[in-house]
Amino acid sequence: MVSGARFRRMAGLYREYWRINVLTSLEYRANFLLWAAFTLVYHGSAVAALYIMLGEFPSMNGWTFRDMAFLYGLWMVAHALHNTFFSNVDGIAERIHEGDFDRVLIRPVDALFQIIATPGQIFPDELILALLYFAFATAYSGVRVDAAFVLLVPLVVAGGALIDLGINLAIATLGFWFIKVDALRWLVLQLEQEFTRYPVAIYSRGVRLLLTFVVPFAFMNYYPAAYFLHKGDNLFSLPPAVGLLAPLIGIVFVLLAYAFWRVGLSRYQGVGH
Amino acid sequence: MIVRRRRFRLEPYVEFAKRAIAREATYRFDVFTELTSVAIRIYLLRTVWVALYAHNAEPRGLPLHAIVTYSAVALLMGLILDRDQTRALYDRLHDGSIATDFMKPISVPLSFFADGTGEVLFHALLVVPALCLALLFVHIDVPSLVVLAAFALSFFLGYSVGFLLNFILNCTAFWTFENSAVQLIVTWLTDLLGGQLVPLVFFPAALAGVVDVLPFAAMFSTPLLIYVGIIGPGRYLEVMGFQLVWIVVLGAIATLMWRAGAKRVVVQGG
Question: Considering the domain boundaries, does residue B198 fall inside one?
Fold first, then answer.
């Protein structure tokens, strides 16, 4: 267990990590602006494609463009949270493969914490964009914003970010046994990015099962959105409130992934470079 | 520097292309990922279109089987068109090795073209297994031979537009240090504004106006609309004429940039 003094030390290191991140980003200003522009184009073109499709066809399984704008917003905030705070996890397998991981093990701080807090050029531009877009999409979709909504949305997106983290950590941990996990990571990322844009009800049974129970990306946005927008999709005869389980599923997934990570770590003997 | 004009020989460039094919073939995992990824996308787009067509009126001239064909062919074309075949130029400008290329008795732009062609030829081979995978999920309409021939020609013109666009972007490395973000932005814009994701005929008027003045439609949309028959034989000359205009315009820009850039390298002395 993490003791009080150790926790304070980690908090200090983490603050320092963010300070370096922001300073680095400000140093390479032109580069930062270009990457911010890329983030804008990336999410902009995804939403534009939905807008064009649902301009020609008024609805998809009862979901209009307004509904799907909200669906995308929920995923975007959760994913941006993951990208902002945990994106270093995605690079673990490569670090193991390159032999660079050994350096992490000789320092007197928890390995996973070090990985997450390795300074790069991480700047919360995507998160800021996501929050702005989500505010817009919420108003645009006409979803009822009451006390319950304000209370539940942060829990749901935090849960979504944890689901994202859990799955990515599990894949990264496979890097202890397999050299090439990039291919798998890439395919799962595609599943996440492209399949969460549409209501899960349109997919065949196998894909619905996959997105609900195996890699539960559907809990990042589809189930919660169906609950907030009062869609009667009723997949697998689950009650609508199942969408509110996102935080719980997120926590369980991260704990399982962390246990798996500990197993991988204890068996790790270096790649023998 | 005295440069004696040599008689043009094709062999070195064939060798460059062969080397590129061998290089690409060594990344077996990437090939596996690429094929699976195309198959997943084809499944996704088919599902999306089926859902959209199920509860709405059919749009003008594009029945469900035509739009599914359109999407599948578009994704297979992406195997070839989404490649940045002149990335080597950027890399060699970045690490400075371009300086030694200028000393070799070859045409440098042609060597990049040959290398890029080899890379693309390898990925063109991947269309065959990708097509087999695709046929597990979808039925792809096959048009008449005349239409297929027009499609092939228009596809080649579209490929040339894409090649020149990539070449121009990589030429910017003569002046800037970092252009990966710009490259990605252009790739994303190409997929949307070129009509790979959603046919341009569905675009609202305002966006359609933007698309008309950009070169991206010449890459994906024109050959695809020929394939599914929205562009009939009566308009072949007109649309391919447009593609040619883009090739001329982009070719001129590429030539100017290359000349200006190459001069810079000599002036700086590497």
Answer: yes
